[in-house]
Write a structure and sequence with these properties.
Layout: E1 4-10, H1 15-33, E2 38-44, H2 49-58, H3 66-75, H4 77-87, H5 99-110, H6 112-117, H7 123-130, H8 133-150, E3 157-160, E4 163-166
Parallel strand pairs: 1-2
Antiparallel strand pairs: 1-3, 3-4
Length: about 170
């Protein structure tokens, strides 16, 4: 019921999204959301298969864990992305696997399974979530549909009371 509705479309593998999450999370939550002045909605904007894998894993636990897991991915984004860079071309064959195997194998190869296991999502639980190809397809399609609907061309993109705004203008500078 807040008078200001803020919707963020962000990618878990987007450095600008990670920067926004890190710089704004405390102030946004404590100053604006907790006071009831702003309602905040986060929507994954999936850019690639790794992003889709991470987004699926944030949904494997109870719904109330979503924001905490998302914040932890952003907080550890540099380390996760560094590991991805070392994988390079080794990941390409995994993209060719059937959908029910693709994301399980990507999570294993990139360390995402291990990362989320350290945050309460057991390996078998992660594998079960990631093997649901229909869920991956639905999340990817939702992202694509919202991209078209709201004319999203990059991340992060914000909507304030239904009006789209692009990225970095919201990040406070020193």
């Amino acid at each position: 019921e807040a008078p200001i509705k803020l919707v963020e479309f962000a990618s878990l593998t987007c450095p600008h999204c990670g920067e926004f999450a890190e710089k704004s999370k405390t102030e946004l939550r404590k100053t604006f959301v907790d006071s009831g002045r702003v309602s905040f909605e986060f929507r994954n904007y999936v850019r690639d298969a790794i992003d889709l894998t991470a987004a699926q894993l944030t949904r494997c636990a109870a719904p109330q864990s979503f924001f905490a897991l998302t914040e932890q991915v952003f907080a550890q984004q540099d380390a996760l992305l560094a590991r991805l860079q070392t994988q390079g071309a080794q990941l390409q064959p995994l993209l060719e696997l059937p959908e029910n195997q693709r994301y399980v194998q990507l999570a294993e190869a990139t360390g995402l399974t291990e990362f989320f296991a350290g945050r309460g999502i057991a390996r078998d639980q992660a594998s079960a979530c990631l093997a649901k190809g229909a869920d991956a397809t639905a999340l990817a399609n939702q992202s694509g549909d919202q991209g078209k609907q709201y004319k999203i061309t990059g991340t992060p993109t914000f909507m304030i009371n239904g009006e789209a705004r692009k990225g970095r203008w919201l990040i406070a500078t020193d």
